[in-house]
Amino acid sequence: MTLAWWGAVLGLVAGLGVLLVRARVLAIRRPQLSARVLPYLRDLPQFADARGAGATPVTGGLLGPLLGTGAGWVERLLGGAVSVRRRLERAGLDLTLHEFRVQQVVWGLVGFGATAAYGVLGFLDGDGDTASSLVLCVVGLGLGVIARDHHLSSQVRDRERRILLEFPTVAELLALAVAAGESPVAALDRVVRRSGGDLSRDLSLVLADVRTGVPVGEAFDQWAARSGQPIVARFAQGIAVAVERGTPVADVLHAQAADVREAGRRELIETAARKEVVMMVPVVFLVLPVTVFFAFWPGVVGLSFTTP
User: Fold this and answer.
1) Which of 96, 259, 265, 276 is most deeply packed, by most CB within 10 A?
2) Residue 218 near residue 240 (C-beta atoms within 8 A)
3) What pLDDT, in 10s, does the model give residues 77-92?
C-alpha cells in the first residue's frame, strides 16, 4: 500500500473514533428519567441524593465500569472496610467506601503511569529491562493505592488537630449562652450559626439529630461514639449526663474547656521536649565540630611553623 492509502486508513480510523466519542458524550448528556421526575417529588427526602447521582461526568461514564471493577479488586485484596468507614467519618469526608476505593485505584494508576514513563525513558536510552520495568510498574501501582490510605489517615489527624484548637472557644461560647439563660439546644443553635469549622459542623449534626426527635443526651452520646478523640467524647458524655441529671450545664462546659486547654498545654510541653532532642542533632554534628575546628586550627598551623 502506498503512503496515500495509509493516510486514508488512518484518517478513517480517526474519524470513526471521533464519531464514537461524540455518540457516547451525547448519550451521557441526555437528561435521565430521574432528573426529569425528581423536581416534582421534592417532598420525598429519600430521593434527594438520587438527583446528584444522576449527573454523571463524561470521564465517569467512560471509565466508571473499569474503575468500579478495580475498586472491587482493591476491596477484596486490602479489606478493612469497617476501619475505612470509621476514618472517612472521622475525617469529615462525604465519601462512600466504594468512592474511596475508586480514588485508591486512580492514585494507583497515577503511580503506575509514573513508573511506566520512567521505564519508557529507560528503553529509549537503551538501558531498559522488561522484567524490571513490569515489577517497577506493579510497585508503583501498589504504592499509589497505599498512599491514598495514608493520606486519609493524615486527613483524620489534621481534622482532629483543628477540632482540638477550636474546642475551648466553642465550649466557652456554649457556656456563656447557657449561663445567659438559654436552653442547651438554643445555645447549640446559636453557636452553630455564628461559628465555622470542623467542630461546628459536628455540632450541626448533633443539632439536626435533636431537631428530628432524638433526645439531647442520646444525640451527644452518638457524637461521642462517632468521635475518635477522648477529649471530645468526654465533653459529649459530660453534656449528656448534665442534661439527663439536671446539673448546671454551664459549669460542666467551663470545666471541659479548662480541661482541653490544660491538655493542649501539656501536649505543647511534650512536643517541645521531643523537639529539644531533635534540635541537639545539628548542634552536636554541625555546630560543635565547627567550633572545635576553629579552636584547634590556629594551634595546628602554629605547630607546623615551628622548627624541629
Assistant:
1) 259
2) yes
3) 888 888 888 888 888 8
